[in-house]
Amino acid sequence: MTDELTVRARYFELMNMNGAAHVYRQARASGMLAALLEGPMTASELARQCEIRERPTRLMLAALDAMGVVAGVDESFSLTALARMLIGGGYRALGDEYWAHLPTLLESDKPLQRMDDVGESESHYRSQAAALAWMLAPAAEAAATALGFGATTAEKSILDLGAGSAVWSLTMARRDESSTVTAVDWPAVLAVATSTAERFGLADRLTTLPGNFHQVELPAAAFDLAILGNVTHLESREGNLDVMKRARTSLRTGGRIVIFDVFPGQSKGDLNRTLYALGLALRTESGTVYAPEELEALLAEAGFAAAELVDLPVPPFAVGMMVAEASG
Ligand SMILES: C[S@@+](CC[C@H](N)C(=O)[O-])C[C@H]1O[C@@H](n2cnc3c(N)ncnc32)[C@H](O)[C@@H]1O
Questions:
Q1: pLDDT, tens only, 91-120
Q2: Domain at 118-325, CATH from 1.10.10.10, 3.40.50.150, 3.20.20.70, 3.10.20.740
Q3: pLDDT over 70 for what percent of the chain?
């Protein structure tokens, strides 16, 4: 595209993003989404139930339909899977709680929350882990394929550190009947991993190790694959080095470590990645999107061979995986 066209394309994109966010917010505030949760309705039924005017309700529904929030068939509108995910999850306000803190962040450089704090992370992630599983399911499938699970991999014993819902490890284990997963996280969060395993029919292949991944006792040379999924951006350099060293000790020589995180250079993730970095500043004290080279250097120090960065070309398009082998 020429510069002239790019500028106009960006202009319309930005106007649309803002307009769509306003429409979604007003659909919530007016009770439209809550009403549709009860079942499909026509625009006039919805307007009556929410005590709003019919003509703008129709216009709002058309925009919500174009956004993928509702689906209109024969004049009747229902919520889509996207709307149900938004309404039922922790991001029903599109993260407004965080974004409203932006002026304060600029003034004080202090976050709203400390999701990177060991005292806070359990309560935050117990409610977010299931939403993360939903968001990352396609990326987990892409990663399992890229790692050769179910086809060529001989990695049977998987350690998932800061597992959350354990979506990465359990998606891999689902491809290979003889593989097992050991998940480490806080007790309340591991309940989410257990329910993922039940949903996948893998409950008998999941072992949970509750506690701090810097302290929990891990068996030595016991695992073929260690996963750090969206953990490195929460940790300091020292914290990352410590957890990588612990992963190295628990891996057999020749085993692999896989880091999933938001990396630059992914298929089309620049806006995702930069907003993610800003979001981290809003909800953590020291959360950072590391450059791949920084993580590679830490991996080398922890006893891993040269790392490879692999694109995961599925939503959210900003998450990639770094893979490195445990050297002898
Ligand atoms: C961003 S979430 C990622 C969860 C999952 N790996 C994923 O990618 O969906 C980070 C996880 O690490 C866990 N966590 C953070 N610090 C931890 C620590 N010191 N010990 C154990 N778990 C920790 C959190 O409870 C949370 O489940």
A1: 899 999 899 999 999 999 999 988 777 777
A2: 3.40.50.150
A3: 98
Mean pLDDT score of the chain = 93
C-alpha of residue 199 to centroid of ligand 1, in Å: 20
Residue-wise pLDDT tens digits, 13-27? 999 999 999 999 999
Q: Give the residue range(s) of CATH 1.10.10.10 domains in the chain.
A: 3-94
CA-closest candidate to residue 25, choices 99, 124, 77: 99
Span(s) in the chain for CATH 3.40.50.150: 118-325
In the structure, which protein residues have their CB atom closer than 6 angstroms to any atom of ligand 1? 118, 121-122, 125, 129, 132, 136, 162-165, 167, 184-186, 189, 212-214, 229-231, 234, 260
Q: What CA–CA distance (Å, rounded) separates 112 from 98? A: 7
Q: Is 89 exposed, middle or buried (0-12, 13-18, 19+ CB in 10 A)?
A: middle
